[in-house]
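Q: How do we represent a protein-ligand complex in a form that can be generated token by token?
A: Start from the inputs.
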Amino acid sequence: MIDGKKILFSGMQATGTLTLGNYLGALKNWVTLSDEYECFYSVVDLHSITVRQDPAELRKRARNLLVLYIAAGLDPKKNCIYYQSHVSGHAELAWILNCFTYMGELNRMTQFKDKMAKHSDNINAGLYTYPVLMAADILLYQADVVPVGKDQLQHLELTRDVAQRFNGVYGEIFTIPEPYIGQRGARVMSLQDPTKKMSKSDENANASIYLMDDTDTIIRKFKRAVTDSEAEIRYREEQPGIRNLIDIYCACTGKTPEETEKEFEGKGYGEFKLAVGESVAAILKPVQERFQELSKDKAYIDSIIKENGEKAEYYARKTLRKVQKKVGFPERIR
Ligand code: TYM
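Then emit the structure tokens for the protein with tryptophanyl-5'AMP bound:
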């Protein structure tokens, strides 16, 4: 608890261009939860280098992502928005937790298996221990809740297991975090293959809506979305393409799948796709405009980076000191 509030931690990688999946699965929920909790929202740049990056590009993307958090509606005076690499405690705690995580556990991580297949020329140890760094991110701030999309649930489970193991040895050191999964948009699927999740790294640009896509592009991509020949707008397993579009529409409008089925009863796919595209454009446009505006204010963004980095550092140190003492590292002499 900080000032009587429960703690929330979440993060996003600054790799690739953010998609509608990132927005509906995570960022949008972050904004909803941001009043209720004491929040830490990190741009997780340490995670990004598990895959080879161009340094200038990474720096630029990380900054854009930080600005985007604010543009999406997070108030940086209330929420701690910061770069992971500015708080060395993440890496320090990750090392300690590495010694409490079994290789068998890491071998089971599906994201590692996927990334290993995709980056077969660079299967580095960081890629393998990535979930431990993620556990460190969360446990460092004693987070009660972690809002994420469904693809991160396995990592959250591991975080809980490692925290419980550590607490089992040393006493109640870490808060055991709960995942928070939004009701809609927790798994936005590719527009070109609705059996695959929408991903920043998809090579087909038509498969993903990027957060900075303009209205025409968004509508064009939805028009081309892969559906089926059933010619009925129904929310069911047998129609994964339509189901995905209904999920997106509901996440953007707040309607339920039943209401959506009724709204489009007897109507064609073309009309429905246009409505979905328009609902997405309506939700992204204000974020894009605010992003453009904020990006111009360098001094303001710099001050946020400095203040929030210091705040994160303060809370991270508190946990880290406790952990270091428990595992038996000698106290500092001041
Ligand atoms: P990342 O950067 O891949 O994704 C950021 C967030 O977006 C969600 N997401 C999706 N949600 C719904 N549908 C999709 N198609 C979709 N694609 C992505 C993700 O679930 C995530 O919530 N390892 C994390 C970053 C991280 C983190 C953390 C998250 C590092 N440390 C600590 C929470 C807590 C990742 O790579 O997310």
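The domain at 205-292 is CATH 1.10.240.10 (Tyrosyl-Transfer RNA Synthetase). The chain has two domains: 7-180+299-327, 205-292.
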